[in-house]
Amino acid sequence: MNRQRKAPQGASEEGRRGTAPTPAFLRIEGLGKFYGQGADARAVFRHLDLVVAPGEFVAIVGESGVGKSTLLNCMAGLDHWDEGRVVHGTHDLGAMDAEQRALWRRAHVGFVFQAFHVLPHLDVGQNIGLPLMLLGRQDGKAERVAQMLEAVGLQGLGSRLPEALSGGQLQRVAIARALVHRPSLLLADEPTGNLDPGTAAKVMDLLLSESRAHGASLVLVTHSEAAAGLADRRLHLGPEGFR
Questions:
Q1: How many CB atoms lie within 10 A of CB 145?
Q2: Sign of the CA dihedral 137, 139, 142, 144?
């Protein structure tokens, strides 16, 4: 069921009623992104404002080409923006250099890419465990990887190389990798796009259960009405911004 909130964009229901608002975990202020320069510059989006509370699930929908994936990349500090701010808690991503953003992202963000970005030279288990390795979390790593393999229905495939997997299986590897280190912010770009309806439902259950168990904020870009309907808020991104 779609539980879209009626509060103004960027405001919680509590804030609208005049009580203490929910604190922001992710805050976007006046965000603008352009391609080209000068008179040839084209706005991907402009004047975007968004507040995501801790543990909140926000779905972003819209037509292809309006900048949904680019917006997710900006939220993670993977892409630059030309106007505005992206703030996570007390961390202003625009005030960080590339190395600082990479270290922050490694510890706090899980990203499910539309194109998977599974490393071909690592086996499935190594791909899933990569965030833990980069963070130096060796204790319990094997058990956590095994847990995630089972959670996404890939138990017994941990030693296989990505080339031996189907597109749907690669998507599940990418999801398990995004969740394995229990990030505080989970960004997912069409995470069910390559999955059959039954597997897609299981994947959404996994994303929701993991994010809720650890209080993570989840921002999902999707064309799936079923997936968007599970969100606390559903926002439509178009040429004029959010609605």
A1: 22
A2: negative
Question: What DSSP line would sit under 133-181, residue for residue?
Answer: HHTT--TTHHHHHHHHHHHTT-TT-TTS-GGGS-HHHHHHHHHHHHHTT
Distance CA 242, CA 240 (A): 7
What per-residue string of b and e applies to 180-200 under the rule 16 or more CB within 10 Å gives b? bbbbbbbbbbbbbbbbeeebb
Antiparallel, parallel or unpaired: β 91-92 and 241-242: unpaired
What domains can be seen in the chain, in order of their start residue? 13-242 (3.40.50.300)
- Please give the chain's pLDDT, 243 residues, in tens: 333 333 334 433 333 344 444 457 899 999 999 988 877 888 899 999 999 999 999 999 999 889 999 999 999 999 999 999 999 988 999 999 999 999 999 999 999 988 889 999 999 999 999 999 999 998 999 999 999 999 888 999 999 999 999 988 998 899 999 999 999 999 999 988 878 888 888 889 889 988 898 889 999 999 999 899 999 999 999 888 898
Q: Which residues pair with residue 111 across a beta bridge?
A: 187
In what helix (H) or strand (E) does residue 75 lie, and over which residues does it extend?
helix 68-75
